[in-house]
Amino acid sequence: MATKTYENLVTEARKMLQDTDTNLQRYTDETLIELLNRGLRDLGTMRPDVFYGLFAANSLNVPEIVESGAGVGQIDWTDVFTLEFQFYTPLVGYLVGVAEIFDDEYTTDGRAALLLGQFRNQVIGL
If you average pLDDT over every residue of the chain, what do you get? Predict the structure, then answer.
């Protein structure tokens, strides 16, 4: 299996959102990275053990993904996905679900709720 990056995760979410036309993208990379960071924080709330290697002085340090120029506590989005791979797909679903809530707050198809519920179930069930 090829190595995945955080950028790959955003690209997969963009494909599910049908937002791949670079001339007409609804979501900027910055927006999707912001949503990914929210997903990582939610993951840290539900499963702090995922970030066990980042514990320092009894505090949980969830890394922040940035487009470029990663500093302390940050990861460049082109870096290799550093978490256990079983959290990759739930984070893609989270990203799509939250983006769809922003896209249409009155959606009736329930896809966003389904994806966010799947994220929770997949993360808790691991």
Answer: 86
